[in-house]
Amino acid sequence: MAAYLPVLQSPDFWPGEFRPAQKTETGSIIMPYAVLGDIADAFVSAAYDRGWVQCGFDWASWAHSDEAQKLCNDPSALAQAEPLQLVYLITVVCRQDRFRDGTLLSAFKSFLILGIVRRAAAIVEDERCRLQS
Question: Which of 19, 23, 30, 39 lies 20 to 30 Å from 125 when distance is taken between CA atoms?
């Protein structure tokens, strides 16, 4: 997770966009939908590939818990999150997006994902310092 910090905090980072509804030539309507940018999409793929999205975890219940709400809404709480809490947050956002299109894009745009990655980077750095002492 921490490896994504430089690109996610870059001013050039583009998380993606919401595409408006469209009418096709046959008259069908394509509903509005979210499209992730390349970096955001790679982050999500890495989250699944590297086990940051947990299976067998009741993410829907945890998402409504006081703990989850505090981590999502209080940057100082997120800055103190434990590694497992970061994994739970990534799991919630990724899984919610499957049911509510745009959840991931909103999490990137609101800097929630950036906050998670910053905390992951801080944990990695703390561990490096601990091992060097």
Answer: 39
Q: Three-class SS of residue 100?
A: coil
How far is the C-alpha of 16 from the C-alpha of 108, rounded, in Å?
9
CA 81 to chain centre: 15
Q: Which long-range contacts (CB under 8 A, 24 or more apart) does 108-114 make?
A: 108/8, 108/15, 108/16, 108/36, 108/40, 109/15, 112/72, 112/78, 113/8, 113/40, 113/43, 114/8, 114/9
Q: What's the rounded Cα separation, in Å, for the pair 47 and 87?
A: 9
- Rounded CA-CA distance 53/46 in Å is 9
The per-residue pLDDT string of the chain (133 residues; one tens digit each, 9 = 90 and over) reads 899 999 999 999 999 999 999 999 999 999 999 999 999 999 999 999 999 999 999 999 999 999 999 999 999 999 999 999 999 999 999 999 999 999 999 999 999 999 999 999 999 998 888 888 7
